[in-house]
Amino acid sequence: MSMIQVQQLTFSYPSSFDPIFEDVSFQIDTDWKLGFIGRNGRGKTTFFNLLLGKFEYSGKISSAVEFNYFPYPVQDKSKNTHEVLEEICPQAEDWEFLREIAYLEVEAEAMYRPFDTLSNGEQTKVLLAALFLNEGQFLLIDEPTNHLDTEARKLVSSYLKKKKGFILISHDRNFLDGCVDHILSINKANIEVQSGNYSSWKLNFDRQQEHEEATNERLQKDIGRLKQASKQSAGWSNRVEASKNGTTNSGSKLDIGFVGHKAAKMMKRSKNLETRQQKAIEEKSKLLKNVEKMDSLQLTQVEPKTKELLQLTDVSIMYDGQTVNEPISFKVEQGDRIVLDGKNGSGKSSILKLILGDDIQYTGTLHAGSNLIISYVQQDTSHLKGDLADFIEEHQLDETLFKSVLRKMDFDRIQFEKDISHYSGGQKKKLLIAKSLCEKAHLYIWDEPLNFIDVYSRMQIEELIQTFQPTMIFVEHDQTFQEKIATKRVNI
């Protein structure tokens, strides 16, 4: 056991005046299974790069362990898998590789196939297995779930639970709950380390917010009452002070000593009230700095002319004459929210593209209603680049509405000036979701919309869909999202 200590860390990118980290200090145990959470763009991957020594910074990071990063960059993917793994962990024996991948339910024959013939999920599993065989290294795991189906996520989460010594960036709540014992959270105002899984962290975070809300409300009332009392006290003091040289109503002379004593007493009370008021204001200013504002999103859908929008009967996707999936049948009616679930490579995305009208070989029948308007969120974001203004013009979006949605999803205004290619993975995905929310459609087709999306935005999107109940077909492996949103499930 050893500690990773971060002391007075300050860092900003050369092209930005806003610091990503400012005078940050905390420490973590190298035996911990640490979940790393925070809004998109808050600096999670940046912190990994600082640990890896990629950027200069002020402050100090001290550690007795070496750091390794997932996803590991495989330079030559045409090599056999066992060659790739031997480069990652040269001291491991073949039987150790086989043991680790067996835990992850990867067949032994995958070791002797070219790495690029493995599915994305298989690549994720074998790379994690090899990296954990490196003794004395602390693993920095960046979004491992993006290429994993629902069952694979459960499997990898169980695998990680048996390991120790890693920081895991993930926004999948179920996945985190299954494998971490501490949470490192980048909040709006600070960075905190807390024992427990995601659910226990969220419970504590919400309780803290509720306590601060109640304290804030009490202080607000106290400040108002103190202001009024201070104003009255000052008024009384002034009136007494003004009467020092006067007489009583009966014409007798006032006791100047008594009046002076009373004026001083009233002035002292007024000063005490002002001091208490200022103290309450200062106490109030320390509250609610970490509130994650989640404004409600809006959706304008088009009412379809018929209840039934779409029907698939005995549809199988085919590639190079080979059938990818067993025949599936389902229909989409107004208000349905259908999740397509199945293993990686089972044809889920291909079925979505078939519905969209792509030229995909298939058997069976597909019938779509006439003039069906579809809004689509695609899985891939690598094509996104250029100015935001050009993106808005290309897709004929209402600029004010579009930017308003992005702001509600925690986009700073400075992001509007950047080239889209410089956005984080989560910010690119939010761009596509915001576009879809601004499009009036009969049917919304979303293909893994939550990849890279932070937890708070996931909850915003869940609330939106539950409120407006749009007709949807979606692929998403976040189990919590599936359970909250889907009205029907189609297993492929």
Automatic annotation (TrEMBL):
Q: Cross-referenced Pfam families, in alphabetical order?
A: ABC_tran (PF00005)
Q: Which residues form a coiled coil?
A: 263-290
Q: Which UniProt keywords apply?
A: ATP-binding, Coiled coil, Nucleotide-binding
Q: What residues does the ABC transporter domain cover?
A: 4-213, 310-492
Q: SUPFAM superfamilies from the entry? A: P-loop containing nucleoside triphosphate hydrolases (SSF52540)
Among PANTHER family, the record links this protein to: ABC TRANSPORTER ATP-BINDING SUBUNIT, DRUG RESISTANCE ABC TRANSPORTER,ATP-BINDING PROTEIN
Protein name in the entry: Lsa family ABC-F type ribosomal protection protein
Give the source lineage, highest ranks first: Bacteria, Bacillati, Bacillota, Bacilli, Bacillales
